[in-house]
């Protein structure tokens, strides 16, 4: 059963999927207050693994949800409308508008922390205006924030999977900045950055402004590492940019940075199934489809996590498992973010 003690760190999850966040954060002794998922198979996975955690269903009906306090809201709203491979309708696409629904839930729940994930294409969707809308609204709600592109391959899994992560904290930009960036990047004596990768985002000089809030543009610059960092916190990934809370005179809808779409996965092939590509790997001069268990490992899940009783059968077919895993966050990345948030939250740094 869920611990209702006020001292227990509790979070709510929207667009939960198969709940990478809960798998990642179980070791932190955090408790999910509720989940929110509508797709049948992922919902069945949630019910199987977390029978005592309510699945509140459709996030657009959040006003009907129980009004209970949470410390953190996490979610990765649908990315199709922000993918270069998609129609790029951005916020004109109803799936993209779930980004604004996420913000409405933030306004209602007022958690101390937020974690939001999406594909790098969100940074250039509608010339950056869509992402700028999100950041601007988050700032107006009183949240300081930082954002960064992290690649799962630097967190111990065998796939190249780059995603944008936004971390927000109610009232202070320094907390999320310390979560997503190395300690050397949050002091005024910033070490010389390495040469930025060609076609990466520009520097973060337009990501913040002065207006009673410290200007982070000079301290947190855009960088692109060529390999794992040797920082004391063990951080590995590709920093992209940060931004301070919303302040007067900053128009995030026009000043959002852009970035090219990420490169393809390390493991890829031409296998197909159900009208959609399936992950494949070349072995001994042959191409074979990855098994669902291999895909679980690529995302950092335990073996057979998605192999649940399904539609009156003792096991699940491969198709729903592939789709659920492909739509999930990478567990090791979420674990790293969670550990950093726990450290900041407990120390008040």
Let me know the largest β-sheet.
7 strands, mixed
Helix segment tally:
9
Mean pLDDT, all residues: 75
CATH class: Alpha Beta
**H/E series:** EHEHEHEHEEHEHEEEEHHH
Question: What count of domains describes the coordinates?
Answer: 1
Oligomer category: single chain
CATH topology-level name: Rossmann fold
List keywords for this structure.
349 residues; alpha/beta; Rossmann fold; 16% strand; globular
Strand-helix topology:
Layout: E1 10-14, H1 20-25, E2 31-36, H2 40-49, E3 72-75, H3 94-109, E4 113-118, H4 129-140, E5 143-151, E6 162-170, H5 174-180, E7 238-242, H6 252-255, E8 272-273, E9 276-277, E10 280-283, E11 286-289, H7 292-299, H8 318-326, H9 331-347
Parallel strand pairs: 1-2, 1-3, 3-4
Antiparallel strand pairs: 4-6, 5-6, 5-7, 8-9, 10-11
Account of the protein in words:
This protein has a single domain (10-263, 328-347), classed as Rossmann fold. A hairpin with a 2-residue loop joins β8 and β9 (276-277). α5 (174-180) packs across α9 (331-347) and α7 (292-299) packs parallel to α8 (318-326). It has 349 residues and is an alpha/beta fold. It is built from 9 helices and 11 strands.
